[in-house]
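Narrative of accomplishments. A recurring question from our advisory board has been how the design workflow behaves on a single, concrete structure rather than in aggregate. To address it, we present the structure tokens for one chain from the evaluation set, followed by the sequence designed for it. No filtering or post-editing was applied between the two.
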């Protein structure tokens, strides 16, 4: 599609401009996917080229390096000792000794790797099954412990990560030895241990500060994600808990079960729950955002009295714990609650619901979803109101005065001044709020427990009954902690898919919000 010039675009009326933008949007979709494909291809090309360059560099370093560099290929830190970098040499050598000791001691890394049968479809994670043996002396059955699949998989994963760290450290210290050889060949002096310490407290101080947070991210974020991903390829559930009964590798069988839209598959349940999850996150985010902004504008408007009272009244919903307030409000709308009884007595509940024995708004698919969104507005508006109040107070008032002189109406002031400023400041918050609502367990579970209407089209999925208001997070909770079967492998797959959805949406939205796209316009 040929793109119009700015002058030609200005000649279009509003409807033609809308159609033009719509055509541009749909024409850009194939180009967007093409761009992603090219980026992925370039990524793999760069990875292949990087690996090739590393291999060539390693071979060149060994063939052209002196005897100290060659020995450092086998003894960590030897080249550092040779060039006077004693501290680095000690650290590298200690790391090698610790690695070798960990890998080859009894019950060390090699032991856990041998127990894992890694990704051998059909093989168990662990080799020795726990069994019950009769003890003639005690006249009772005694459980003889075998392997623990959970422990085998965890320690095996840590061993693999340790091996990767070992290879990286080996490559690093060899490269440093080659650099030291080049420096001394030019007649220059290499850095000593004191220089390294001084550097870590001066020009490399950012690395010193970031080392602990980086370790925390790797240990408490990256490692659990990898572990959760691995569980998706196993049969880990209540019947195969890994201790009394070892679980096994099943390959892509679990993914086939989730994406099977036929009879006995979970595809229909997953698709419907995912659709409602995205719909809920959208309405829960933007209803709170725009209504909270509207409330803040109204309270801050000139002429409004007792502003502190209105703000305090709204903030009270934040002060009261959600666990208490949501349970109480859910009971109000129940068939036995005050509001629920009034609706029944005043015949405000539709006859179609009564005919299906749905005695409250919670027991109908549409009304329960609408009620969830409305009650979430009551919970979320105070947060937005407080943030919006601070932003509104910092918008330059001369912009509004200038717009009034130019004849701008209140709606034009809102769309051209207020909303752009709000979106610029609160864009990242909107993104995190949307992600948080995708996993908003509290509101959904506390409002709908004991009032849930089973989804008759789906029925039972993943060993639990699915309701019309279930999000992916509540479905995941039911099949793990609120189910006799406890299908951890299925919950792991759902967790992976939620992560993928959140990651894709976050990357797309983050690159189009004004906070990152038009930062210079508000500087």
């Amino acid at each position: 599609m040929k793109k119009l010039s700015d002058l030609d675009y200005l000649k279009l009326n509003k409807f033609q401009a809308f159609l033009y933008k719509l055509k541009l949007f749909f024409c850009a979709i194939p180009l967007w996917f093409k761009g992603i494909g090219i980026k992925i291809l370039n990524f793999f090309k760069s990875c292949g080229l990087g690996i090739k360059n590393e291999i060539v560099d390693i071979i060149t370093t060994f063939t052209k390096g002196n005897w100290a560099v060659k020995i450092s290929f086998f003894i960590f830190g030897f080249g550092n000792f040779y060039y006077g970098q004693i501290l680095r040499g000690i650290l590298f050598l200690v790391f090698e000794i610790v690695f070798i000791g960990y890998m080859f001691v009894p019950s060390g890394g090699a032991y856990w790797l041998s127990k894992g049968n890694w990704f051998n479809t059909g093989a168990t994670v662990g080799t020795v099954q726990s069994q019950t043996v009769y003890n003639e002396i005690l006249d009772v059955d005694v459980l003889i412990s075998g392997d623990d699949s959970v422990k085998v998989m965890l320690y095996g994963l840590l061993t693999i990560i340790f091996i990767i760290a070992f290879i990286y450290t080996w490559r690093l210290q060899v490269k440093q030895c080659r650099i030291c050889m080049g420096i001394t060949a030019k007649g220059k002096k290499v850095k000593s241990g004191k220089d390294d310490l001084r550097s870590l407290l001066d020009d490399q101080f950012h690395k010193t500060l970031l080392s602990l947070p980086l370790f925390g991210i790797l240990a408490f974020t990256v490692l659990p994600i990898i572990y959760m991903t691995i569980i998706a390829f196993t049969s880990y559930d209540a019947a195969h808990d890994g201790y009394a009964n070892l679980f096994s590798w099943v390959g892509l069988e679990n993914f086939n079960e989730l994406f099977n839209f036929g009879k006995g598959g979970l595809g229909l349940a997953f698709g419907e729950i995912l659709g409602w999850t995205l719909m809920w996150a959208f309405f829960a985010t933007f209803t709170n955002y725009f209504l909270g902004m509207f409330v803040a504008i109204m309270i801050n408007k000139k002429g409004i009295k007792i502003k502190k009272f209105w703000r305090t009244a709204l903030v009270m919903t934040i002060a009261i714990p959600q666990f208490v307030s949501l349970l109480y409000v859910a009971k109000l709308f129940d068939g036995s609650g005050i509001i629920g009884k009034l609706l029944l007595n005043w015949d405000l509940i539709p006859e179609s619901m009564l005919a299906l024995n749905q005695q409250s708004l919670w027991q109908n698919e549409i009304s329960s979803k609408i009620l969830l969104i409305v009650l979430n507005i009551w919970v979320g508006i105070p947060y937005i109101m407080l943030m919006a109040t601070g932003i509104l107070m910092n918008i330059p008032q001369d912009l509004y005065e200038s717009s009034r002189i130019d004849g701008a109406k209140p709606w034009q002031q809102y769309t051209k001044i207020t909303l752009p400023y709000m979106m610029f400041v609160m864009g990242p918050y909107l993104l995190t709020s949307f992600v948080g609502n995708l996993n908003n367990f509290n509101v959904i579970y506390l409002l709908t427990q004991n009032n849930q209407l089973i989804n008759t089209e789906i029925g039972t999925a993943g060993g639990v009954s699915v309701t019309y208001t279930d999000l992916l997070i509540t479905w995941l909770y039911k099949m793990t902690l609120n189910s006799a079967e406890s299908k951890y492998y299925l919950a792991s797959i759902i967790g992976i898919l939620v992560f993928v959805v959140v990651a894709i949406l976050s990357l797309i939205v983050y690159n189009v919000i004004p906070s990152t796209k038009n930062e210079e316009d508000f500087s």
